[in-house]
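Milestone M4 deliverable, item 7.
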Amino acid sequence: MSRRQSPPVPVPPAAARFVPRTRPFHKRYSVQTRQLVNVAAGRCTKPDDYVIVRYSGRIDKIARLAHDLMDDFEVVRRAYDCGEHMSGPIMKMRITVDKLRYEYTDFFRDSAWKIDDAVQERKNLSKAGYFDLEPLKDEILELPNQTPPDFDKITRMVQLQIESAETVLSHYRRTFPNARSIAESRHALIVQASPMRPADTAL
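Output delivered:
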């Protein structure tokens, strides 16, 4: 008795198989990432000075990287206008997006500490910028395939990154009681950690 064979599974043509699709939210972000973003802030009490200084530094760095994104994007636009290859500038912009994502992730981790009474507010404010990063990266990856590239759309998306980061930064400076002294302490720690210059060793 011959075995009954199942009908062959139809295979879509190559063009259909490899069309990029936007992943749904639950596949775009891991379970751990979603938990990290959505868990309540301020769960851990009594953070030490190092944690507070590090938390402050995350907010500053997110704002700086958001502005770096616009600088990187201008390089991409100039390359296109001059008829040059955009692959290098696009790669640089993608790296900046990745750096921003890592900083946001570390910021969410540091938000577990009870930095002050507004730590949950800042975490809520930062979520929009974080979740806009993946769509921005998708648009950056599509640039070489567009004729002409949709630079206006990416300009708006980068501007939203800057606005989101600056909103969190201004909120921190307005609500945290010792924001200025924390910034000075962070600068002092950076100076202490940096290697001595030749001029310093001569003193």
